[in-house]
């Protein structure tokens, strides 16, 4: 049952006045009341539903569209109120547009096979959203270039370190003074150490990078890269992590391939400690080296 409002002109003032009908005058709910109540129930559910995730936001707007659609139909067919119909129809259309926009944002983002492999190998393990990765590799910020076999990406002491590149396919070799340094495989940066160690881009490469087979690279120019990182702190954190890991892996690969005269592997991460250990071993056979330990403030083996 619902209270009824009756309006009439006041007998003395000649104006309109309203009074609430007595409970005995209330009527039972009709079909129109059921539609109205259901619409408001859906509206309440939409407003109290969590909306902290994209799918939750989409669900909220879908419920709002349904609620305003029910109120619009109720006002047009039963209430016969143009004002109520117009307002609720406008609200329904606004939420419908927002719902379509959210569906568009949630659509599967298609990437080329090379970029898809890079995303799965580097970015997906650290839970970077695909939308962020698509922004990073978009044509607005990056370009995809081709290196044929024998082409040089960088020449030692000639090429400036004013860009950052990621190998998508193929293989590139790093050479220093005609000596092999290491290979660069797909999913690795070509010039992460040079790019990270120099902020101006005026320094020159200390190695030459030569494609040993047809290769494709993803390249960011330093100026565009720095501008993009300045606008997106999350993306800057992601790239700093990937570049730092790439440099660490290269250093470890180089150190594992370098050996001393005795055949042991040299640890380039701690050169001073490695040198002390080598001197200590030689002191067993040459007591005169104890003087070097004394100069360094370290006791030789004969002093234990």
Description:
With 304 residues, the protein is α+β, with helices and mostly antiparallel strands. 49% of the residues lie in helices and 15% in strands. It has 10 helices and 9 strands. It has helices spanning 31-48, 54-79, 82-105, 113-123, 130-137, 192-197, 222-231, 233-257, 271-283, 290-296, and strands at 5-9, 16-20, 143-147, 152-154, 163-169, 172-176, 179-184, 208-211, 215-221. The strands form 3 sheets. Strands 4-8-6-7 form a 4-stranded antiparallel sheet, with helices on one face. It has a 3-stranded antiparallel sheet with strand order 3-9-5. β6 (172-176) and β7 (179-184) form a beta hairpin. α1 packs antiparallel against α2 and α2 (54-79) runs antiparallel to α3. The chain is rod-shaped. 18% of the residues are buried. Mean pLDDT is 78; it is low at 1-18, 269-274 and 292-304.
Question: Topology, pairings included?
Answer:
Layout: E1 5-9, E2 16-20, H1 31-48, H2 54-79, H3 82-105, H4 113-123, H5 130-137, E3 143-147, E4 152-154, E5 163-169, E6 172-176, E7 179-184, H6 192-197, E8 208-211, E9 215-221, H7 222-231, H8 233-257, H9 271-283, H10 290-296
Antiparallel strand pairs: 1-2, 3-9, 4-8, 5-9, 6-7, 6-8
Helix pairs in contact: 1-2, 2-3, 7-8
List keywords for this structure.
three-stranded antiparallel β-sheet; 9 strands; alpha+beta; four-stranded antiparallel β-sheet; 304 residues; 10 helices
Radius of gyration: 36 Å
Helix/strand/pairing class, anyone?
A: alpha+beta
Shape: rod-shaped
Q: In what range is the share of β-strand residues?
A: 15-25%
- Main beta sheet strand tally, sense and closure: 4 strands, antiparallel
Q: What number is the mean pLDDT?
A: 78
Specify the helix fraction band: 40-55%
What is the first-to-last residue Cα distance?
Answer: 100 Å
Number of helices: 10
Number of strands: 9
Contiguous runs where pLDDT drops below 50 for at least 5 residues: 1-18, 269-274, 292-304
Numbering strands along the chain, what is their spatial order in the largest sheet? 4-8-6-7
Name the helix and strand elements from N-terminus to C-terminus, one letter apiece.
EEHHHHHEEEEEHEEHHHH
């Amino acid at each position: 049952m619902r209270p009824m409002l009756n309006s009439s002109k006041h007998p003395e003032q000649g104006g309109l006045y309203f009074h609430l009908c007595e409970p005995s005058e209330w009527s039972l709910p009709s079909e129109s009341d059921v539609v109205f109540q259901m619409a408001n129930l859906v509206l309440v559910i939409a407003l109290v539903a969590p909306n902290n995730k994209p799918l939750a936001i989409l669900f909220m707007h879908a419920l709002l569209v349904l609620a305003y659609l029910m109120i619009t139909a109720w006002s047009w067919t039963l209430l016969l109120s143009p004002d109520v119909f117009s307002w609720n129809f406008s609200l329904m259309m606004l939420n419908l547009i927002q719902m379509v926009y959210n569906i568009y944002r949630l659509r599967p983002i298609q990437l080329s096979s090379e970029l898809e492999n890079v995303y799965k190998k580097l970015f997906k393990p650290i839970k970077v959203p695909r939308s962020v990765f698509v922004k990073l590799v978009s044509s607005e910020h990056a370009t995809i270039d081709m290196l044929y076999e024998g082409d040089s990406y960088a020449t030692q002491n000639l090429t400036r370190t004013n860009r950052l590149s990621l190998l998508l396919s193929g293989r590139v070799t790093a050479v220093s003074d005609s000596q092999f340094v290491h290979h660069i495989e797909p999913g690795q940066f070509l010039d992460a150490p040079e790019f990270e160690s120099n902020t101006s881009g005026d320094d020159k490469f200390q190695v030459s990078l030569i494609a040993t087979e047809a290769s494709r690279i993803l390249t960011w120019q330093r100026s565009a890269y720095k501008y993009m990182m300045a606008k997106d702190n999350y993306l800057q954190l992601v790239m700093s992590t990937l570049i730092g890991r790439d440099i660490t892996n290269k250093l470890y690969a180089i150190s594992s391939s370098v050996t001393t005269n005795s055949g042991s592997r040299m640890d380039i991460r701690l050169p001073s400690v490695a040198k002390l250990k080598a001197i200590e071993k030689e002191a067993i056979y040459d007591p005169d080296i104890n003087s070097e330990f004394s100069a360094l403030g370290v006791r030789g083996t004969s002093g234990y």
